[in-house]
Structures
1.
Amino acid sequence: MRKLLTLVLAVALLSSCSNSSKKTTEGKAVDLTAAGATFPLPFYNMVFKQYGEETGSTVTYGGIGSGGGIRSLKDQVVDFGATDGYLNDEQLTEMPGEVLHIPTCMGAVVIAFNIPGVDSLKLSNDLLEKIFMGDITKWDDIQITSNNEGVTLPAMDITVVHRSDGSGTTQIFADFMTKISEKWASQVGVGKSLNWPVGMGAKGNPGVAGTISQTAGSIGYIGSEFAFAQKISMAKVQNSAGNYVLPTIETISAAAQGEIPADTRIMLTNSSDPASYPISGFTWLIFYKDQAYNNRSEDQAKQTVDLLKWMVSEKAQNEAPKVHYAPLPAAAVEKAKAILSTVTYNGNPL
Amino acid sequence: MNTTENIRLQDTSKRRQLKDKLVLGMVVFFSLVTVSPIILIIGELVRKGYRQISLDFLIKNTPDTYSAMTAIANGERIPGGIANGIVGTLIMVVLAAAIAIPVGIIIGIYLYENPGKRLANFTRSLSDVMQGVPSIVLGLISYLWVVKHVTNGYSALAGSVSLSIMMLPMIVRSTEETLKMIPNSLKEAALALGTPYHKVILRVLIPTGFSGLFTGILLGISRVLGETAPLMLTALGSSMINLDITKPTSAVPLLIWEFYNDPNMIDLIWSSSLMLMILVLVLNMISKQIAKKTK
């Protein structure tokens, strides 16, 4: 019992020590906390670590999902949040302060397939609709074979694999499908989880990738960062210029070459750029325009903005392709920098 | 007549022996079926995770995704380890235990001393209800209480609070059950000698029931060790070792979730799970041993 009491005392002492040490370090290196989307988690963890090594401050990022990131920013328990889907106008008015978005990198949704003996597949918008709506059920259907001359497709049933959990990946995919198919738009629509006409569900990118690799004749959609790392067979998808494009770092970046609004809130699917892969999108960091909230010091506000600026700098952007994320094109970087220059602390520019 | 009776007797005894063996076989078979999942799980974890286990795995922080990727491409072991998670788990569990143990034992003693009182009955049924509360709900509560209002951000303290609420009912109930098993004469003897009440509790009841209390505590700890959901809402995670309980902190189950989401770190899922499993198993075995010794 006495030992137990000493243990309790020791822990209490330890915690009070660490409390007091925190106060003395304030003003020099500031520790930042962020939370949100899991899609850019590997990229963020890597660049935040590099930023920490350069500046001596620790940046902690928790991959708790886009919804969690928005919630945390709303509750003002983080310095900034991260999300795969931008906040719509209604969400923006619900926030306690004005919230800004900057894109940090790009990703895509790839169409992965597992057809024995086939390593290249071209899918027109029409075929995508018919396969994912369940209107075509065989791989050797004349509509698929006529679009893929020179490829021998087996007489095998098509198994559609989709996400069972709510996901930003599903949302981007559904957004693209809604743009290319009226039937999809009226019967399925857009959302983080959908009422699927056909197919089987699997959890997360690893779940979908695993199911596809184990099921001959299957097709599904996976986040590009995952598909590139795991070297999964991907289909060429038809973009709005009519070209069949394979997802690569370059073709994904090309999707952001067109007009981007000043607040960067845009879905990039079905981009008009002829070289673009059509199922691409931004991922954003979100933060308050006025950084003076919840007793945050000016140092902490400065550090936050410095980090955000660093995220769109050449150095951080050059890291993105190494871990299979597409960097921002120059136009998007300019927009992000312009947004960051409007950030204030108590009304004064930082 | 004698011989026919003998034969009949022999016959029934043979039949009985056969039945006996049949039942024994069934018992053994079903016991094996019951334990096989745990053996299969451990076997799978060892098979997939042993390659990553080394000293580095225990003393280094989580690697970034690029170094993991290059290591996989070169066919090497993924560098780094889960030290940030191990340290974070230890801090949070120790802190949670420091909150839950004193409170839990005091409530347990109260329940034992006043079995019939309305407040005691109410407390008892409440703590039984609390045992069934999903851990994610406790995470939400701790998010509202601690993250939003005490630490103004994600913190190890918030994680500990959610874990301690989870441990509390287990400690309360095990304390009460243990004390019930102590012969009443022991307490009466101490009181007859004129020992003050608080000394009876501290010097007689708790030391006599120590092993039972300890078992309850260890089982409580091993239950919260693997909790992920409440920590995602409270402790958040960190890629560095963090000793400040007001800052976000990592934990082994949180790291497993992060590895799951990173296509380059998949190999680390198995070794981290193996570590967590071993930790929980060892704690469970220790508590079983202590319980056995004192019975």
Note: The mean pLDDT of chain B is 91.
2.
Amino acid sequence: MDVLDLSRWQFGITTVYHFLFVPLTIGLSLVVAGLQTAWYRTKKPAYLRLTRFWGRLFLINFAMGVVTGIVQEFQFGMNWSEYSRFVGDVFGAPLAMEGLIAFFLESTFLGLWIFGWDKLPPRVHLATIWLASIGTALSAYFILAANSWMQHPVGYRINPVTHRAELTDIWAVLTNSTTLVTFPHVIFGAFVTAGAFVAGISAWQIARRRDVAMFRTSLRLAMVVGLVAAGGVALSGHWQAQIMTEQQPMKMAAAEALWQDESSAGFSLFAIGDVENGRNRVNLQVPNGLSVLATNTLDGRVEGINDIQARYLALYGAGDYRPVIGLAYWSFRLMIGFGFLAGLLSLAGLWLTRRGRTPASPWFTRVAVAGIALPFLANSLGWVFTEMGRQPWTVFGVMRTAAAVSPGADVPEVAISLVGFTLVYAVLAAIEVRLLLKFIRLGPEPDPGAETPAEPLPALSY
Amino acid sequence: MELTTVWFVLIAVLWTGYFVLEGFDFGVGVLLPFLAGDEAERRLVYRAIGPVWDGNEVWLLVAGGATFAAFPEWYATLFSGFYLPLFLILLALIARGVALEYRAKSDRTRAWDHAFFWGSLIPAFLWGVAFANIVRGVPLDADHEYTGTLLTLLNPYALLGGVATLTLFTFHGAVFLALRTVGELRAGATRLALQAGLASVLAGGAFLLLTQLDGGRTATWITAGIATAGLLAALVATRAGRDGLAFTATATAIVAVTATLFGNLWPDVMPALDPANSLTVVNAASTPYTLGVMTWVAAIFTPVVLLYQGWTYWVFRKRLTNDPLEKAISP
């Protein structure tokens, strides 16, 4: 493997790993803020106990999001210095804005929230978790604006002298159509993630007969959040697919294993492709499905891989402009599949808990707990699809990934960091899961009305 | 003022903020094994920086992001050239961040204490090594690519720079702990502050002197003088038990040291051994449009950030104590 391959593996591993924590942080911060608001309004102790129980799990997860996020920012300079030189003028701006506008907000106010329980007036303390929650969503917005520029570069020109991209319109970058559809997709995905997480753990607590009434509340809440958000994911995903067909037709064609331009194109459910000869051996389709998805009409024309490749050869010169088609095809399909199942699970759960019912079947618990994995898989596969589907470009149509890598980095360096990050991340994953399990088993703190604990509110601080 | 100069100053300010704020966090981590005896004291040490360290660390992320936006060439050369030291810093910051968040929730507190110690010590040392190399100049080719190796970075001057920042941050952290605690812990922090302060005056003084003799300007002789005076004043104030004054003095010293380094650097951002290849505020900078946009963003949001971070320190201004009686009467 050369520096390019190693750097791509490192970026892929660190990014997918980082993004295991991000959606849960975004979604769970809102759940915790909502529960604390309910407590502030009603003063019911159950809401405080829920706030603190989910708040603790949120913090365990947040810590990992923070530390892995630091690596993300510096990797561009370390492994992708040619990319950084080429696009810094454009790409650096949203990144710097993320730090200044969003990251300071979430970190500072989260510190205040954790340690401010007995130091701030309740109303001010409630505001701190909301500000932290807003910070996490803003963070996502700026990062997605930066990423969307790589998918669909706007608001820039190439300087003919320096051959670098230069920002000409920051507003165009911040309101990039790609950003505007991707942001809701990611945010709704985050709420689905938090919904499945809260629902699964609540179901498990109910099965253990612990605070059944209280966890039934959080179970129902999580399933409502999960169902509504799954609807949002599907709608925004549909909108996103249309924009993608227009902006990155190759990605869409690869996602569908569609080889030739086609009107009334079908949505592929299962295909076995023959990449060599540019055709499918087997292809099971929903008739007209892709045309509807991509163009909102039954007979809309969708471009195919072979035709786009021919067009790109004329446009960009020699080269293979096809991403890894099997990967694009299956990551897209499985992303949708897992997301769909997560939504279905919420719907089923709401039905089973209707009108005061509390499901007692061990099956329900098992399915709900296993369901926690669904949105995580969908999120990860979504990023694999969106990033791998853009290849061989790092900035679509402008800069190839092979040209973006650091010329000064050598194989041993990058190999050391790849192995180092992967090992440390693996160890941390094990620690995080163990801690989560420990505090899930421990359950919520005792009802403050029932007894007065000696050390008030211990576990949220150090 | 040229926008490139404005951004040079702003990035210097961000690094200054980072060193002043996370500087004492690092110091607290380095001091933990030498200071806190029992578990209660250890927890107090963690609690001293608990509410603020994460916000402090964001100064680094903003400094990095701002460098990317304002001086992409600098960002690209620096982080690809200093690959392995930066990788080590990142690993250390990961271990440290997780230790701070997980220690109280886990049973293996001792392991986390080690992670916190090394995670604080390594960056406190390596940031000094990195900045000493930046100021001294590194081998760059005509494309501004770093052509040296890891050993190039580990020259005696840079290692002295590392010792200088390590001792300086340790001093700063000790003074901070003295300011935030009472009783035995405060006495211990004061004792360690005097030792670290002495080491800091020696190492920092030697580093500043070498830096000034090599490329000092009139203005940076003044800032270097202020830095030295700040360290000495902090020692005197610590002896006199004036913790607030001592902390102000170490903070001033860190500001002055950073100002000295950046003052000697300008108008370069990364001088090359062959001056023709040096990265300067002009050839490393983004376009005037980008710098203009970022100037607006910084002008609007920096004061807001300073305001709420300042408020955080105000909220947690009370000295920490384990005395249950005192806890009961405090709000």
Note: The radius of gyration of chain B is 20 Å.
